Amino acid sequence: MKISQIAKMTGTSPRSLRHYEKKGLITVSRRDNNYREFDDSIIETINTIQLYLNLGLTTDQIKDILYCPENLMYEKKEKEYCEALLQIYETKLNEVVRQKKALDEAQVRLEKQINLMKENRNYVPMEEDEQ
C-alpha cells in the first residue's frame, strides 16, 4: 500500500509516517522507484504508536516499548515482561499524577476567583453624594 492509503486508514499524516520510519518505529520496504510500500500488518503498529503518543510518551520511549531489548525480557504468567516498559509506565504515571494535582489546584483557584467575581459584580459602590 502507498503512504497515502495507510495515512487515510490510520488517520495519521504521511509526514508522521515518514517521521516514525526515520525514528525506527516502523520498517517500510521500498519499491524499485524508491516509493514506500506498506504492508497491512503495519496498521496495528501505527495505531499502537498513536495510542502511546496520545498518552504523552515520546517516540524514543515508544521505540523502547515496541522493541524492548531481549536481555530485559522475562516470562511472567506466559506473557512477555519488559523492565524498561515498566519503568516508562511508572515514570509516566508519576508525571500524570503531578499534572493532575496541578490541574486540581488550578481548578480550585479558578472556582474561588469566579465566585468572588460573581459576588462582586452585583455590588455597586455608592457614590460620595449618596453617602
The best one-word shape is: elongated
Strand content: 5-15%
The averaged pLDDT comes out at 83
Give the H and E element order.
HHEEHHEEH
Indicate the radius of gyration in whole angstroms: 25 Å
The CATH topology assignment of the largest domain is Multidrug-efflux Transporter Regulator, Chain: A, Domain 2
- Strand line-up across the major sheet: 1-2
Q: So how many helices?
A: 5
Query: What about the largest sheet?
Result: 2 strands, antiparallel
Q: List how many beta strands DSSP finds.
A: 4
Assign the structural class, choosing from mainly alpha, mainly beta, alpha/beta, alpha+beta, or little secondary structure. mainly alpha
**What is the level-2 CATH architecture name of the largest domain?**
Orthogonal Bundle
Helix content: 55-70%
Count up the domains: 2
User: Kindly, what is the distance between the CA atoms of the first and last residues, rounded to a whole number of angstroms?
Assistant: 81 Å
- The CATH class assignment of the largest domain is Mainly Alpha
Which regions have little confidence, pLDDT < 50, spanning 5+ residues? none
Secondary-structure map:
Layout: H1 3-10, H2 14-22, E1 29-30, E2 36-37, H3 42-54, H4 59-66, E3 73-76, E4 79-82, H5 83-121
Antiparallel strand pairs: 1-2, 3-4
